[in-house]
Specification:
There is one protein chain. The chain is an alpha/beta fold. It is built from five helices and eight strands; from the N terminus they run ββααββαβαβαββ. It has a six-stranded parallel β-sheet with strand order 4-3-2-5-6-7. The chain has a two-stranded parallel sheet with strand order 1-8. α4 links the parallel β5 and β6.
């Protein structure tokens, strides 16, 4: 399966928009990803974040982390339950990728796929008047899609930066981008996400 959806230019209101980047951390981006490598995703996401900061638009960096004993993780019965690797996660598992952080960013730590449940994300966005979320990160069909579903249910408008998003396989990425995310928001290339000028607001 290939990603087939057309991209659309997005001109967003900088006063009501935020960029939310999901799980761009060393323990995630170091895995084999497709169709975009971890290095490419971090590069494009970092450039996108820099453009948002230059326009004084909020950037939110989300990571996933667990207690050393893993007791804060979900453990429902499942055919493929989420379990830590033998010996636990590496010490730098939850550290954000180099180059990603910037002054004024908000940091959110989650303990499940989606970034809204059990975190301050909705509170921090609403108190800043955010109505639109530009969403990207890893993995397309897991953390990104789960956060997108929750954001949609909370009433946020969504834009997805396709080339700053990737998954564990090209097929997983394509299925989400072709079938799920277009029902929740609009899909764009990172370079085609821009802001309305003051005159047009």
């Amino acid at each position: 399966m290939t990603f087939e959806r057309k991209f659309t230019m997005q001109n967003l209101d900088p006063k009501t928009t935020a960029l939310v980047l999901i799980d761009l951390q060393k323990g995630v981006i170091g895995r084999t990803l497709a169709p975009h490598s971890g290095a490419d995703v971090v590069k494009i996401a970092s450039e996108l974040a820099d453009r948002f900061r230059a326009a004084e638009v909020l950037v939110v960096l989300v990571n996933v982390a667990f207690a050393p004993d893993f007791k804060d993780a979900l453990r429902q019965p499942a055919d493929q339950p989420f379990m830590p690797p033998a010996g636990g996660f590496p010490a730098d598992f939850s550290e954000l990728a180099d180059r990603l952080k910037g002054a004024g960013d908000i940091y959110i730590t989650k303990r499940q796929w989606g970034a809204f449940y059990g975190t301050e994300l909705d509170l921090q966005l609403r108190r800043r008047g955010i109505q639109t979320i530009v969403l990207a990160g890893v993995a397309t069909n897991i953390g990104v899609e789960s956060t997108a579903r929750q954001a949609w249910e909370h009433g946020y408008s969504l834009v997805f930066a396709e080339d700053a998003t990737s998954s564990l396989s090209a097929e997983m990425h394509a299925f989400s981008m072709n079938n799920i995310l277009p029902r929740l928001g609009k899909i764009s290339k990172a370079a085609e996400i821009d802001f309305k000028t003051q005159a047009s607001l």
